[in-house]
Amino acid sequence: MNLSRSRGLILFAILAAGAGLATASEPLTNTLSVHRIVGPGATETSEPASVARPGDVLEYVAEFRNTGSSTARGLSATLPLPVGTEFLPGSERPANARGSVDGVSFDTLPLKRMVKQADGTLHEELVPTREYRYLRWPASDLAAGRALSVSARVTVATGGEVH
Stretch 124-152: mean pLDDT, rounded? Predict the structure, then answer.
């Protein structure tokens, strides 16, 4: 992966965070952070993801804060998963996320699709997790002054660094 495309991965995620990741009727702010997970498991730590290499585990966290004076109704939080990464199933928090390959159609995890076989019949197969581009959580209400965080982990695909 070349340097400009690598930078684009994190840039895409940051830009998407400001481009309507939530829908609700009250004023909301949102931030997206990316951390590299070091030593995944019981003794893991995290650090800012200024650089990530193939095989690294990154955690994307989107925080939505209701800055209004009343409850924000119908908050639907969406988290982008950049090209060049592969979603780690079971890492989504909260656990009730739906996934998408195009940002338009969302379905329960794991994602499945119908594939036409050589004989013309259709066969259902799992969508590879490297094709997941978005996660979305069901609409909920967010009280004034409260925050909601959603997160998921990905691995960086082989072929370059993420800056």
Answer: 96
